[in-house]
Amino acid sequence: MAVTGLTMGLILTSPQPASAANLVKNPGFETAGTDGMPYCWEKSGWGDNDFTFTSTSDAHTGGKAMKVELTRRVDGDRKALITESASCAPVVTPGKQYDLSLWYKSTTPDTAITLFRHDASAGWQYWTDLRTLDMSAGWTQASVRTPEVPSGTDMITWGVSVYGTGSVTTDDYTMEQVADPLPPAQCTGTTDQCANGSWSVLPTQNPVRSMHSVVLNNGKVLLIAGSGNSEENFAAGTFTSAVYDPSNGSYKVIPTPKDMFCAGHVQLQDGRVLVMSGNKAYPVAGGHGYEGFKDSYIFDPKTESYTKTNDLNDGHWYPSATELGNGDVISFGGLREDSTGSVTAEYWSDAEQQWLPLWKVNQTWSYWGLYPSMVLMQDGRLFYSGSHVFGNNIPGTGSAIYDYGANTITQVPGLQNKDERDQSASVLLPPAQDQKVLTIGGGNIDSNPDANRLTDIIDLKQADPQYVAGPPLPQGTVDLGNGPVAETGNQGKMYVSAVLMPDGKVLETGGGLHNRADPVYEASVFDPDTSTFDPVAADPEARGYHSSAFLLPDGRIMATGDNPGNGTWNHNVSIYSPPYLFKGSRPTITSVIDNEWTYGTTQRITVDRPIAKAELIRPAAVTHSSDPNQRFVDLPLSVDGNNVDLNVTSNPNLAPPGWYMLFAVDARGVPSVAKWVHLQGPAALSADTAAAHVHSFADSLQGSTSTPGKKRTSQKVSPTISGCDRHYGSANVCVPTVFPPTVKKTTAARCVWLAANDYGRLKVNGKDDPLGLDPDKDGVACGKGDVRTRR
C-alpha cells in the first residue's frame, strides 16, 4: 500500500504529456503546477471584475476540474488558459484545422471558447472566439473546429472565457488535427481561367445610369440612378432605379420619387434599404456647387417601391451610412442644401423607424468630407479609414477613431499620402473577427496627380493601432486616349472597387489614373493571410467614376457603370467568375434548419460533402468605391458527418443585424451558392442569451483626442470640389480644373486632351474663361479660332 501510494503521488505531481492523438498536455488538470494552477495552465483575463480560480474535486473524470467564477463585473473576462510556452502550448501547422473539445458546467450564458496564437515574428496574440457555451447544470460536452491556422503560426493556446457573473467548471480538454478532407483541386477550365478567373460582358445593358448598387435579400440587385448625373434628366424630373434579377438577366425599371443621384444607402435589419439625401441642384458656373436635400426614403424589396421617411436634420449630398450593432444607422458628411459642407451627424433609430431630432444626436460639429468610410469596430466605435471622395482628407493624420458614446475623435497615424486617398477603397478584411482594415489606392481630384499604388493595413486589435504600409498595387494598362499602354513608375489608380469573396480573399478591380479620365485595366486578389496581391484577369470594360463592383449570391462578381468627364455613360455590365469557380464541383448547402438566427447561438446546416469553413457575408450597398458595411464574419464549425453546427458570434458589432449571405466553403476554397439567413437584432435576445464578448482592442490610443467643437452651421466648401470647372459645357460634363500633369498648360495642349477624351463641343458658360480655352471669345471652347489664336 505504501508503494502504491508513492506511485500514485508521482503520477499526480509529475508533468503528464499529451496523448498521441490529444495535443493538450494535462487535459484533466490532474497534474499540479505552480501558483495554485495545474501544470501547463495559467490564469488569464483583463478588466474590472472580481474573480476566483479554483481547482475543484467536482470533476467530469478523475479527481480535478477547473472552476472560474466572476462575482462582480464591469468589463473584461477571466479564463483558465493553456500556458503560453513552448513546453505547454500545442504545436500547429499553418493551413491545417483542429477539433477542440471539452466538458463543462456553467451558471452563466456569458462564456466563449477563446483562442490565442503564437506568431513566429509578432509573438502571442488574440486569434478568435469560437463558440458560446449554453448554460448547463450537468456535465456537457462542447466541440468546435478552428479556422485554418494562419501563416506564420507555430503554436496556439485556448480556454473558456467567462465575461458575465457566474461560473464555468471545465474538464477533459482534447485537441486533434483534422484530416485533409479532399484531394487537391483539379482545374475544370482553361489554365488561364483556373489561375486568373474570367470576365464576360452581359448581352443586355443596364437600362439606367446607376451609380448605387444594393444586393437585396431576395438575390436581386437594386440599381439607383436618380438623374444619373444628367442635367437633362434632372430638368425633366426623370429619376430612375432598376431591379436586376441575376437568375434570368432581366431588369425592371422602378419609379423613383426624387433625384437620388449621389445619395447614401444602407440595408436595415429587416432587409429594406434606407436611402438618404441626394441631389437638390446641379452646380452653376460662378455660383453654388452641388446641393443636397433633406429627404429620405425606404425601398422595400417585397413591393419594389419607395416610401418616404421623415426628413434628415440637414442636407447631405454624398453622405456616409453605417449600421450599428443595435440596428440603428449613423451618417456623416456631404453637402447641405446651400452646397456648403454638412457638420451635422444624423442618427436613424431602428426602434422608432425615423431620423432622430438634432437635440437627441451627439454632435462634434466636425466636417468629415464626402462619403467618409466609417467602419464599425467590435466595441461599437467607428474607424474612419481615410477613404473619401473629392479633394483633401480631414485635418490631422487623415484617419481617426470616433467614439459616439464619449463623443470624442482620436487621430490614428500611419496613412500614407493622406491627401491623395480620394476615391480609394477601404474594406474590413476577412474575417471581421480579425479587425484589420485595408485601404487601397487613390488620388486627388483637386490637384489631379497620377493616382497612386499605395495600400495601408491597420490592425485594430492593437492597443494603439497604426496604419502600416501594405504591398503596392499591381500595375496594369492605362488608356491615355490612344489605346492601352503599360503603367509606369508609381502609377496606380483611383475609383477602386474592393469586393469580399467567399474564399476569404478580396478582389480589387476597376479604376482610373486621373479625375474621370484614363481608365486603368487591372485587377488582383488580396490574400489577408499572406498580405499579398495576385494579379488576375482584368475587366474588359472601363470602370472609373460612378462604377460599382459587388458580390452576387452565386459567388460571381458584377461590375457596372463608368462616367468619364465627357458626360457619357457605360451601360455594359461585366461579370467576373473567380478562379474558385474553375476548381471542380461546388459544395451544396442542402438544408438550413432555421434561417432566423440570434447572437451567441449554434445553427445547424447540412451539406453534401465536407467543408472547411462557413461564413456570413453582408450584401453590398456600394457607391463611389465606398461600402463601409461590407464584412465577412467567420462561423466556426462543429462537424458531425454532413451535419454542421455553425457558431454565431455573440457580438452584434461584429455582425450587425440584418440579412446575410451564408456560404459553405470546401478545403480547396470552392464556395457553395449562398443561402440567405436573417441575423436578428439585440431586441430578439432573451434574458439568458449571451451578452456581447467585447475585447480590449484599441484601448490605449496615443493620438491626439478632440472633444466637440463650437456649434456651427456648416463648413465652407469650394463649388469646384468635384474637380470640374463648370464654366464649360453642361453640368454633367467635367472639364478638369487641373489637367493631368502630362498636359502642358497651353490652350492647344488642353484642347488636344479634351478632343482625345471625346468632350465634343463645349459651350462657355458666361463671360469667364479661367482655363483659357476660348481665346477668340466666340463662346465655344477649343474652336478652330481658339487653337489658332493661342498655342
TrEMBL record:
Residues 241-566 form the Glyoxal oxidase N-terminal domain. Residues 586-678 form the Galactose oxidase-like Early set domain. The lineage of its organism: Bacteria, Bacillati, Actinomycetota, Actinomycetes, Kitasatosporales. The keyword Nucleotide-binding does not apply. Residues 1-20 form the signal peptide. Residues 700-721, 766-791 are annotated as: Disordered. Keywords: Signal. PANTHER family: LOW QUALITY PROTEIN: ALDEHYDE OXIDASE GLOX-LIKE, SECRETED PROTEIN-RELATED. This is Galactose oxidase-like domain-containing protein. Pfam families: Glyoxal_oxid_N, GO-like_E_set.
